[in-house]
Predict the structure.
Amino acid sequence: MSYWKVATLLLGWAVLAGCSATSATAENSLNNLLIATPQVADDHYQLELAKLNEIISADNENLDAEMMGELLYRRGMLYDAVGLVTLSRIDFNRALEYQPRLADAYNYLGIHYSQVGQYEMAYEALDAAIELEPEHPYAYLNRGVAAYYDNRFDLAYDDLDYFFQRNPNDPYRALWRFFAAVEQDRSAAAHELAEAMILSDNEAWAWNLVKLFVNGIAEQDFLSNYATLNMSEHETLAERLCEVYFYLGKYHQLQGNWQSAAVYFKLALATNVHVFLEYRYAGVEMEWSQYKAQQED
């Protein structure tokens, strides 16, 4: 392993850890932002919702419990995708009445409970998802994120590290593990993040976000040259910027630039990409950043 590369990337970390960037630097970055048109609900989603409403509402004796559970779960997913979270949560709970072993419904409920700060209910739902499906692709991530926002950073790290180890080439997994780790040991967390980047064997665009966090790239350089790099034909500008602005908000939090962080989280929310994890928690992060900014005034 190239430890000298890790050391080189981390040369500036002590500065990042010990002091804040100047207000002028933060303002300059905010003056050069891309703004995307907020994402609107897909027409296909709306048409499918209309059809599902018709089927579920009809007095159809041909629908057995398993089919009704699947239909309610599917409608809950679509409600979630268009931002109708309360209706979504109602359908997931109803789906479980018909199919009590529907791990994906528990996973969604865990996310929703986390978003509103009902962490014990989130843990209960996500534990159920994992018990029913031990190899569930996202339940460990979501339980780790719930623990992170519940300030249980040791538990968060355990789940997020487990999630990372299942695919160490995913930069987003590396970043979320870092967010839990940095609350326990800032220097060790930065070293671990840099190491993850060096050992990865792909060039996913989001590794540039990782470079930002380990001082391998300047923020303005990132915004100018990397924020929209390698966008796929299936990726919208709103989706990319939802991620970019969320992680820039986290970056500014680490520097103590709470007002700039709050602006970035507002921009992430403005994209309306309801299904992205970054959108789901941007509101929580924005409120926290605003609270910290007010404390410093």
